[in-house]
Design brief:
about 575 residues; mainly alpha
Length: about 575
């Protein structure tokens, strides 16, 4: 889901690579990572353009195979990440800081919470804010024994919406962010997705022998399709609002021409932003988006069914907590495979595809936090924001649907938000706000995502070569346009799941790598039984050095450059 984070935020998020190579231009690019990842993405785009039907049919077949044979992997993986994160928080590793000894937190608690709040807002909430709850109300999930448009279906609708946007997605981000933060700030490694795997395979294999390159390539491909999905959803929603304001009607089949035109126009804005370095302007727009989002929430809460929304909050949270475990383990063994592929598995794949971006962000802003603080903050704050958002907008949609206004059946999926706002005063103004919010989330999210992809393909550089960032920005728009051309919303969901499937294994590997590192940490709480001696730890682990000023190496990344055990040539850096 597209995030409300600006270039300025991302530049501070990424940090410098350890001993960043003194290179410029094309020489800064990791040719292998860039060539393979961009080549695969371009080939997929070209096949989609010239062999549209064949690509659509092949993707549908692959999706059927994945959901039938690997759906359990997404379901168990997402729930396992929740358990793993909570075990780390409340177990013997919870008090370990994500920094060297004596190093303070970089941001105040208020700033930290505020930045995580901004990371939780984006196109996804705009697109699904009304649409998902009313859809589950009108057509309950196959695992729910309730009549459509009944109070029981309404409770289940909110429970499933919270389930898809609550603890599970943020646990996925938490475990990836935690592995990256620990590896960078505690172990002094580079900031690539492959760096934590040095705990398992050693630095020589991951960095010098290139074993980490396939991991970074997968991270780029996965992020590219996940970000393209967000941009595609944003274009569909803007197109729905534009059609309504110009024709006065919702189109049941709006087609793909207008969304593709919108993608092309907004991609020009992304390229202009990336080329001109207007970080301050994009940051200002992102902050404006946050204010407009808050205004929109207050507006609907006040002019909408206020008492209904207030009553819905405890009821919906109770239903979510009561059904959390059953929802977490529903599979297609006795049916429901199509529903799972369209909803739960798609969501888990979408969140997984964004982990290289969001994981990097929350890792960077959390330097100095303990593992317990990190996990609880990442899980609870964004979940609370999502609950508030869906109670207000989803509650407004449910109230209208239960009152006889068919929000779920009005136009396309992207029309749900506008269909609800149409029932309240100042519709044209509120609709324009929604379109502006979505457009700026599109530009700022695509720009920041392109910067992260540039970093991943430049050995972890803080400031990637500008033409490389522009290339990734253009390619993001191209992928979104091609996926809409191939099959609209269905194609966006299909390719997201297919791209994220192998990355589930990468996240599991990150969890294992983190655990291996934590087992050697001298600050873990001791248990009865044999443990590694302190001399062994002190002799092999760089994080035992006390912190001095800042990060001690002057590069501002929080990773001590003196922790790197072996010097490497420029061509061998991560």
């Amino acid at each position: 889901m597209s995030r409300g984070i600006s270039d300025d935020d991302i530049e501070s998020v990424i940090g410098d690579a350890v001993d960043e190579p003194a290179r410029t231009g094309w020489a800064t690019v990791d040719k292998t990572v860039f060539g393979v990842s961009s080549g695969i993405i371009v080939v997929v785009c070209l096949l989609g353009v010239f062999f549209t039907d064949a690509v659509g049919a092949g993707a549908s077949t692959a999706l059927g195979w994945v959901t039938s044979n690997l759906g359990w992997l997404f379901i168990l993986g997402a729930s396992g990440f929740v358990v793993f994160a909570l075990v780390l928080a409340f177990g013997r590793y919870g008090s370990i800081p994500l920094s060297r000894e004596g190093q303070k937190t970089e941001f105040s608690t208020l700033s930290w919470v505020s930045m995580m709040f901004s990371a939780g807002m984006g196109i996804g909430l705009m697109f699904y804010g009304v649409f998902e709850p009313v859809t589950h109300l009108a057509s309950p999930p196959p695992f729910v024994d309730a009549e459509p448009n009944s109070p029981e279906a309404a409770n289940a609708a909110m429970a499933y919406t919270f389930f898809h946007w609550g603890l599970h997605p943020w646990a996925i981000y938490a475990v990836v962010g935690l592995a990256l933060a620990y590896s960078t700030y505690r172990m002094g490694r580079g900031n690539l997705m492959s760096s934590p795997f040095q705990a398992i395979f050693g630095r020589d294999r991951i960095v010098n022998k290139g074993w980490g390159k396939p991991i970074d390539i997968l991270a780029i491909i996965c992020t590219k399709f996940g970000s393209a999905t967000s941009l595609g959803l944003g274009a569909l929603q803007i197109a729905a609002g534009f059609s309504l304001l110009t024709t006065g009607e919702f189109a049941d089949d709006p087609g793909t021409a207008l969304p593709i035109i919108i993608i092309c126009v907004l991609t020009v804005g992304v390229v202009f932003s990336a080329a001109s370095g207007l970080a301050k302007g994009i940051k200002w727009l992102s902050n404006t988006n946050m204010v407009l989002s808050a205004v929109l929430v207050v507006f609907v809460f006040v002019v909408g069914p206020t008492v209904f929304i207030l009553n819905l909050l405890p009821s919906a949270v109770g239903a979510y907590l009561a059904d959390l475990v059953p929802m977490s383990f529903h599979s297609a063994v006795f049916g429901g495979s199509d529903w799972l592929a369209s909803w739960t598995i798609f969501y888990w794949a979408w969140w997984i595809s964004w982990t290289p971006f969001v994981g990097t962000f929350i890792a960077r802003i959390s330097r100095g936090r303990t593992i317990r603080e990190f996990v609880l903050g990442v899980l609870l704050v964004p979940t609370a924001v999502s609950i508030l958002w869906f109670v207000v907008f989803g509650g407004a949609g449910l109230h209208l649907q239960l009152g006889g206004i068919d929000i779920a059946g009005t136009g396309s999926e992207a029309a749900g938000f506008f269909a609800a706002l149409q029932q309240y005063p100042f519709f044209i103004g509120s609709a324009l706000v929604v379109m502006v919010l979505t457009a700026v989330f599109f530009v700022s999210g695509a720009d920041a995502g392109a910067l992260v992809l540039g970093t991943l393909s430049s050995r972890g550089r803080k400031e990637p070569w500008k033409p490389l960032v522009i290339f990734w920005a253009v390619l993001t728009g191209a992928v979104a346009a091609v996926l809409l051309f191939v099959g609209g919303l269905g194609a966006l969901q299909t390719f997201t799941i297919l791209a994220a499937t192998p990355f589930v294994l990468i996240i599991i590997g990150l969890c294992v790598s983190l655990y291996v590192d934590l087992r050697r940490d001298p600050l873990r709480k001791r248990t009865v039984g044999p443990v590694r001696t302190s001399s062994e730890v002190l002799g092999t682990v760089p994080f035992t050095r006390p912190a001095t000023d800042g990060d001690g190496d002057g590069d501002g990344d929080g990773a001590p450059s003196d922790a790197v055990p072996l010097p490497v040539d420029d061509d061998e850096r991560n």
